[in-house]
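Session log. Operator J.P. requested a structure for one protein chain; no other inputs attached. Running the standard single-chain path with token output.
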Amino acid sequence: MNHHIQKLQSTIAPHRVALINHPLYSSISSLTDIQSFMEHHVFAVWDFMSLLKYLQINLTCTTLPWMPVCSANTRFLINEIVTGEESDVDQHGNRTSHFELYLKAMNEIGCDTKTISHLIHNLQSGKTIAEAIAASNLPDGPHQFLNQTFEFIQTNKPHVVAAVFTFGREDLIPDMFLEIIKTLKAQFPDQLETLHYYIERHIEVDGGHHSHLALEMTQELCGDDVTKWEEATTATIAALKSRKLLWDSVLEKISETSNGLFIR
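Structure written below.
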């Protein structure tokens, strides 16, 4: 393995371990807990697509007339990931993006989707991302998480965004979470069919094939430039810390709900 990647992975390892062992997962034991989780996590599912599209826009030609951009290998890597994320299949073989599949899972379990819908409506009406986030009455956790994501994008450094995409977002779902979903699905098969499929598909595609493609893409973009690898490492740590804060906010919501402070 590339020694730059080994050094990055070694540096970020404690932050990844803290996420994978986050107490949030062991706190989930009911449909209400899953609803709280999904109503926060959906913003990470959505803004992941913006990281992806930033990379496609900057690593391929998306304007006319067409001209070659970057290397053909990098173009292949990002286009392959985009195809899978934007037009995968659901459990019935129908084409869908992973975000739309997640929304379907949210509706199936009875989640409140008004906030994420409001955010998208604000963007469709012409607001900037900063204006849309400010106007969407987001919980604190998703609010800071989205701001952090778009700060990465606003660096306009493809190697930074690629590193965040590769090491800070792609494969952070522990096996324990899938087992929790399986257990709850046995009790509530109709409500959790799509979520169960989404999680398994995420592990199969994002944690497998896509993570290898993204790793290769980051390696190509950073090359042997020590400064780029340092910037990639710093950004990845910031992304992992941001995800931990998002998980902290979900855990707080679940704890409050369990104590009867929130009535759905």
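Operator note: The CA atoms of residues 17 and 172 lie 9 Å apart.
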